[in-house]
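> call design_seq(struct)
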């Protein structure tokens, strides 16, 4: 190759054979050069996958025969070097060659794979049979064989040949599982066995019982790690798919449940009544039916006989693995429809959940303190898997769970009263949320009280009254005091103040501050359950629990966001489980608040204004999940801010091509013509033009009865309150930035007739056939309670504003301040009478129309 034979760019096809030859020459071992290390091999694999050096895919602009031939020759060299390494007598080179052969099976072209897999397969098969000694080589061979058969499963035309090849490998794989002593080899063998079951199920037919016995023996032996137990349980759950009939699935499920029940009989001696075992056995083996063969055939008896010779903790691990296996069978797809034994599953889960480790007086002689201590230490894990079993039943059965829903609700209700551990409470909340979303309003009737009671307790430390005293309020006060003391001694740090306010449930043990006992994860689970309850059955509690829940959620959201928005933290890379932070809790509170505002009810959301302000502030956090959700929430709440009753009309039809035709067919209140504006009042919110309830609304009738254009009263004192009109007074502004403007009851203020102020001069600007009328400003606004009422002459809108009366640009986006826009003829607007009275304007009714009879 010439030294200056350059390529066009990084996308040039000619670059790929060059890179591949460089990898072969400089980074791959050969007969003379040893393997430099695993890091060198990782670099080779990364380069091959990143640049797709083995794909041999040519684009339209690469039709040069020299490039095609060069790339083909480079891939041939790669394959030859890989096969040479896989046949090496040195374990490290053999291991490298087998690993690279698995990568080749994944990355090479389809044509090369179909032409070469019959040559590569014997190379890999050789290393899973004796006399292979190296565990590393066996594990790599199992992994590469799994890659090869996974790729073969994508080609239906070679499925027959691939199945015959898989049949030859099943026995050697089971032999590895039974005879090898390395857990890494077991894991590779189980992974390969799962590949056979998934892509070539008929290859397991002859060895079905042997495969079941091999997997069960490892599960019951208790000599595996947690990850290995998971792999074994997954393989056992997939095994019925190799036969693909209903009987195989039902028989496997019955065997597993019976095995779990037998283990529980030994574990729960002395902590439960013997009748529980008899009840479970009656459900597992109906009267008149013969019991199924034991799980694992003849090996199950040997394993159970040795249960007293091994630690009880390993026995509990076997029970947990079998429960996880049931969960996989319930939630995984299956070729045919099967009948799920719901009652035995629920009864088995209930048997475990009802055991709390307490010993009755009659069973004291049969239970030692050490045995009770062990059972209590293992019960949380068993309870967690029992709850997971209930969750899997709900997910797998879905709507067919209805005949058994009462039993599950009773079980959850009774268990929730005794559930204390955070992980278990989170799981119960999750199950209730799944039940609510899957079964709807019918189940919400029975679960509403439990969800509300428990969520109120878990959120009590955040949902405190501003004037009351609680652990959370005491903490915030103590945190502020400590912060002030620190600021007097040290330099001020903005991050310190933010963290103390943004995470009020954290404590400083050095100064003895009270700590919130409820973790953030439990609070988030409670909020998610409340969100599901409001979504499904919010209208159900309009007369009972709905007002208290709405108040709880707005208080929790306000207090959670009072100190500012917390920064989103990255998850811990050492753990696969997500780490919930205060930012996640703030997002959960806003989600629940949105559900509260949008949930159907007979009345207008009483906390709409506070919610809008929170969402408006949160939308400023651009680039975060919280900011994106707040923007979505404001869009969803737009219909409550500006309710519209749009007519269902096809504007593109020929009969409705003119605006006159539209206005003649529909009432003026629903048109966008020149006559009058739409009355945006709470009484017309969400009602159509034919709603019979509209006839009882005086405000609505007054608008429909007024066929003339709106008269706009003006005064001759144009310069009387010029300063207040052009710039709001400082006294009209609320100095507290934390106060949230109220607009939820913006249509419920009554302005007495005798106390209405004289309107100031209005500035009218006309253009065309429309005029824009600015909202009149009043020098001394009328105050009622803690809110300020401003009457806008055009549009009869009365808004509560706890801030400045001047209209700001962003106020229109959130609906905090409303302005009236009137359309009329410009000539007529000039003839308005200065002394016109206010009788043309409808009276503002006393109280919210939605609460009126």
């Amino acid at each position: 190759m010439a030294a200056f034979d350059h390529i066009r760019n990084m996308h040039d096809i000619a670059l790929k054979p060059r890179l591949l030859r460089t990898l072969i020459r400089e980074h791959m071992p050969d007969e003379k050069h040893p393997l430099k290390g695993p890091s060198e091999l990782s670099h080779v694999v990364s380069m091959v996958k990143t640049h797709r050096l083995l794909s041999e895919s040519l684009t339209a602009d690469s039709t040069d025969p020299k490039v095609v031939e060069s790339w083909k020759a480079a891939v041939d060299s790669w394959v030859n070097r890989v096969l040479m390494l896989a046949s090496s007598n040195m374990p490290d080179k053999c291991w490298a060659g087998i690993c690279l052969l698995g990568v080749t099976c994944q990355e090479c072209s389809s044509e090369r794979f179909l032409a070469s897999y019959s040559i590569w397969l014997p190379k890999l098969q050789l290393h899973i049979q004796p006399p292979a000694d190296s565990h590393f080589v066996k594990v790599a061979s199992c992994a590469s064989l799994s890659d090869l058969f996974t790729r073969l499963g994508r080609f239906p035309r070679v499925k027959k040949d691939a199945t015959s090849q898989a049949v030859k490998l099943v026995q050697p794989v089971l032999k590895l599982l039974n005879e090898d002593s390395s857990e890494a080899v077991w894991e590779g063998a189980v992974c390969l066995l799962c590949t056979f079951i998934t892509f070539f199920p008929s290859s397991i037919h002859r060895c079905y019982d042997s495969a079941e016995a091999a997997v069960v023996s490892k599960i019951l032996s208790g000599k595996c790690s947690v990850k290995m137990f998971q792999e074994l349980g997954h393989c056992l759950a997939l095994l019925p798919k190799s036969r693909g009939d209903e009987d195989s699935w039902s028989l496997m499920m019955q065997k597993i449940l019976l095995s779990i029940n037998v283990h529980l009989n030994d574990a729960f001696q002395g902590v439960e009544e013997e009748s529980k075992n008899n009840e479970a056995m009656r459900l597992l083996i109906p009267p008149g039916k013969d019991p199924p063969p034991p799980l694992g055939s003849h090996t199950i008896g040997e394993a159970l006989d040795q249960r007293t010779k091994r630690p009880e903790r390993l026995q509990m691990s076997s029970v947990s693995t079998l429960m996880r296996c049931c969960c996989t069978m319930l939630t995984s797809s299956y070729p045919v429809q099967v009948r799920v034994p719901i009652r035995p599953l629920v009864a088995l889960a209930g048997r475990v959940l009802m055991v709390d480790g307490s010993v009755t007086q009659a069973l004291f002689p049969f239970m030692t303190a050490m045995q009770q201590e062990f059972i209590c230490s293992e019960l949380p894990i068993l309870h967690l898997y029992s709850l997971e079993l209930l969750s899997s039943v709900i997910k797998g059965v879905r709507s067919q769970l209805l005949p058994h829903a009462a039993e599950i609700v009773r079980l959850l209700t009774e268990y929730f009263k005794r559930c204390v551990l955070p992980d278990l409470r989170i799981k119960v909340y999750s199950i209730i949320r799944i039940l609510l979303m899957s079964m709807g309003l019918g189940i919400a009737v029975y679960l509403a009280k439990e969800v509300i009671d428990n969520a109120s307790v878990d959120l009590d430390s955040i949902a405190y009254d501003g004037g009351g005293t609680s652990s959370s309020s005491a903490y915030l006060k103590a945190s502020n005091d400590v912060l002030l003391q620190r600021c007097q001694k040290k330099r001020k740090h903005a991050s310190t103040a933010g963290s103390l306010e943004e995470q009020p449930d954290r404590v400083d043990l050095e100064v003895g501050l009270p700590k919130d006992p409820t973790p953030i994860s439990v609070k988030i689970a409670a909020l998610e359950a409340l969100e599901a309850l409001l979504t499904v059955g919010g209208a159900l509690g309009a007369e009972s629990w709905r007002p208290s829940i709405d108040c709880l959620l707005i208080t929790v959201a306000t207090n959670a966001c009072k100190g500012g928005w917390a920064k989103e933290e990255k998850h811990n890379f050492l753990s696969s489980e997500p780490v919930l932070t205060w930012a996640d809790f703030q997002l959960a509170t806003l989600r629940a608040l949105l559900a509260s505002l949008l949930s159907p009810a007979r009345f207008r959301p009483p906390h709409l204004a506070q919610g809008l302000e929170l969402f408006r502030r949160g939308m400023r956090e651009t680039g975060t999940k919280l900011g994106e959700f707040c923007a979505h929430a404001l869009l969803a709440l737009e219909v409550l801010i500006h309710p519209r009753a749009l007519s269902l009309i096809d504007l593109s039809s020929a009969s409705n091509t003119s605006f006159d035709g539209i206005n003649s067919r529909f009432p003026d209140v629903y048109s966008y013509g020149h006559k009058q504006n739409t009355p945006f009042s709470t009484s017309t919110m969400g009602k159509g033009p034919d709603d019979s309830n509209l006839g009882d609304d005086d405000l609505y009738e007054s608008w429909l009865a007024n066929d003339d254009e709106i008269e706009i009263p003006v005064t001759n004192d144009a310069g009387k309150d010029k300063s207040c009109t052009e710039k709001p007074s400082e006294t009209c502004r609320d100095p507290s930035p934390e106060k949230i403007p109220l607009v939820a009851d913006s249509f419920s203020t009554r302005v007495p007739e005798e106390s209405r102020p004289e309107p100031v001069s209005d500035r009218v600007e006309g253009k065309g056939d429309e005029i824009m009328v600015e909202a009149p400003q009043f020098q001394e606004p009328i105050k009622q309670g803690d809110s300020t009422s401003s009457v806008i002459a055009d549009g009869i809108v009365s808004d509560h504003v706890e801030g400045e009366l001047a209209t700001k640009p962003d106020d229109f986006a959130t609906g905090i301040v409303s302005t009236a826009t009137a359309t009329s003829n410009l000539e007529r607007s000039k003839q308005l009478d200065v002394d016109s009275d206010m009788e043309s304007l409808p009276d503002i009714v006393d109280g919210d129309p939605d609460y009126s009879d």
